[in-house]
Every structure is written in C-alpha cells, then in structure tokens.
Write a structure and sequence with these properties.
This protein has a single domain, classed as TIM Barrel (Alpha-Beta Barrel), CATH 3.20.20. The protein has eleven helices and ten strands. The protein is globular, with a radius of gyration of 20 Å. Bound molecules: ligand PBG. Ligand PBG binds next to α6.
C-alpha cells in the first residue's frame, strides 16, 4: 500500500506525535567531555581554534569537572601536556605525571565522575610520534606496546577507571589487559580506539596538545580513511584481545564505519566527535552561517543514530545544558 492511503506526514503533525515516534534519543548519559591538563596552578590557556576549550592546570580541571558533573555530564577523558618531552615519552608513565596527578585529584574531589585516560605518546615525545622510533623514523610497534602497558598501569593506579589507547599499535589491547590484570587492576575498563583514521580533522587538537609530528605523518599506524572492512578487522582483533568498548574516530565523516560496527559487534560503542568537527561548527556559527545549537545537537543525534553509546565531544557541557532545558521538545 502506498500514497494516498499511506501518508507519512501524519506522524509528523505535532510536537507530541514527533516526540512519540522518535527513534533515537540523546541523553546526558551518552556524553564524555575531553579535557587538556597542563602543569602549573590556576592556569587557563584558551585554544585558539577551539572556542570554549582551554588547557587547564589540575585545580582548574577539578573545577571544570565538578561543574560538568553537576550539569549531568557523567565522564571525562583527559589528555596531558607534560612538563618534559623525550624520545620515548617517559613522562607518560611517571606516577607523578600530569594526568596521574589530575586523576588522583579527581578521584578525591569529584568521585562520582567516570575518569577516562587517553593512552598514547604523541603528547609526550619530542618528535610527536605515537611511540618509540626506529633509526629509519618509523614507529617500533612492539617496543611501544611495552611502554603503553606501563603507561596504562600507572594511570589506572592513579585513578583512571577506563584506559583508552589511541596509538593504533598492533596487539596493544591484549598487552594492556594483561598488564592491568597482573597489577591487580582487573576492574579497569578498556575502551579501544579500534578504528582511528589518519585524519585532517585532528588539526586543532594538535595545536591544543602540542602533538604535531615534527616530521612525516601518522599514516604508518593510523588507518587509511578509505577503508571500512579493515576497520572491522581492527575491531574484531580488539574484541578478541579483551576490549570492553570499541571506538570509531573521527565521528561524522565515519558514520558508515560506526553503523557497520554496530551491526557486527555487541559491545558498547563510542565515537569521537573530534576537534576539527567542533572547530568547524564554531567557525561557521561565528560567521552567522549556521545555528550552532541546532547543528551541534543534530550532529550528536546523528552519531547516536549510527550506533554510538558514548560520544566524546568538546560540546558535552553545551549539549547537557540544552538537554536540561528540554531540547527534545
Ligand atoms: C592521540 C590522539 C589524538 C586525538 C585524540 N588522541 C591526536 C592524533 O592522533 O593526532 C585527536 C582528538 C581530536 O582531534 O579531538 N593521543
């Protein structure tokens, strides 16, 4: 049966009907707020390409998390800007490292909030690559995995509830799981950046984190944007190695990958609405070209519709505020 007996517009007639047939909902339970933690006290350094985002010292991070948690944002993921960088990124596994200090402060002062630690080396190495370099400039996978496990154990001990490796080394999920279990940290979750693409959308993040590679690019370890089947293979391996959740990154340009993962795997899924996606919305809105609130919320709902349970987004607090005002109606 079709038109005129079927009239699709009938269920769109009123806000009430639209609300009652809505298939996808965004809730504050879906939101994760990424934050950049830097050394010092009372430090707040705005990131030029990401309006509303700043590098913050530990005390400021605590205040931001308190406010965000009160607004309904349940989780944060922390990125560190360390005091010192070296060739292997050893600051990242120092028990007194910048993220470790922030984790301890949050565990103490915002205990209800879920604490996620990004695990990688690009912010901690003087060359900006995500691991230990070989003489030819390529990243040594297996040597890097050993260090990733050290970094993960140190962060989990400091209070990270979730370890989220974003380096794209092979075998890291299994190695991190084994190291955590061996250290008596069996309750720590593993959120794997299973399909992380070598993307231009990370541009503003690299300014924020000071993690632009000093030579070359990340195509030797991050995925080719053209490949969806390969993303599913990556995800399958991470499931086998013990990941608790899988992530796709970036989000908007990779919703087909996310939807394919939703079809194939039963694990909870996350999507990272990355810095470039956020910066584009802010830039267009600043020019008066789009309605920021509307396009931002539409983006997050689209990411949900494609299959994400968690959305890592710099707009988490803005979204929570809109949801509190009854945005859906
Ligand atoms: C690596 C990492 C990056 C992002 C998250 N984790 C940068 C990169 O791979 O270059 C990007 C996030 C964003 O763009 O918002 N530690």
């Amino acid at each position: 049966m079709g038109y005129p007996a079927v009239r699709m517009r009938r269920t769109r007639r009123s806000p009430l009907l639209r609300r009652m047939v809505r298939e996808t909902r965004l809730s504050t339970a879906n939101l994760v707020l990424p934050l950049f933690v830097c050394p010092g006290e009372d430090v707040e350094q705005p990131v030029g390409s990401m309006p509303g985002v700043a590098r913050q010292s530990v005390d400021r991070i605590v205040a931001t998390c308190k406010a965000a948690f009160d607004e309904g944002v349940p989780a944060t993921i922390l990125f560190g800007i360390p005091e010192h960088k070296d060739a292997i990124g050893s600051d990242s596994w120092s028990d007194d490292g910048i993220v470790q200090r922030a984790m301890r402060a949050l565990r103490e002062q915002v205990p209800g909030m879920l604490r996620i630690a990004d695990v990688c080396f690009c912010e901690y190495t003087d060359h900006g690559h995500c691991g230990v370099l070989r003489p030819d400039g390529s990243v040594d996978n297996d040597a890097t995995v050993v260090n990733l496990a050290k970094q993960s154990v140190s962060l989990a001990r400091a209070g990270a509830d979730v370890i989220a490796p974003s380096d794209m080394m092979d075998g890291r999920v299994g190695a991190i799981r084994a190291a955590l279990d061996e250290a008596g940290l069996g309750d720590t979750l593993l959120l794997s950046y299973a399909a992380k693409f070598a993307s231009g959308f990370y541009g503003p993040f690299r300014e924020a984190a000071g993690s632009t590679p000093s030579f070359g690019d990340r195509r030797g370890y991050q995925m080719d944007p053209s490949n969806r089947r390969e993303a599913l293979r990556e995800a399958a391996l991470d499931v086998e190695e013990g990941a608790d959740l899988l992530m796709v990154k970036p989000a908007m340009a990779y919703l087909d990958v996310l939807a394919a993962m939703r079809e194939r795997f039963d694990l909870p899924l996350a999507a990272y609405h990355v810095s470039g996606e956020y910066a584009m919305l802010k830039a267009a809105a600043a020019n008066g070209w789009i309605d920021y609130d509307r396009v931002m919320m539409e983006s997050l709902v689209a990411i949900r519709r494609a299959g994400a349970d968690w959305i890592l987004t710099y707009a988490a607090r803005e979204a929570a505020a809109l949801l509190a005002k009854g945005w859906e109606e």
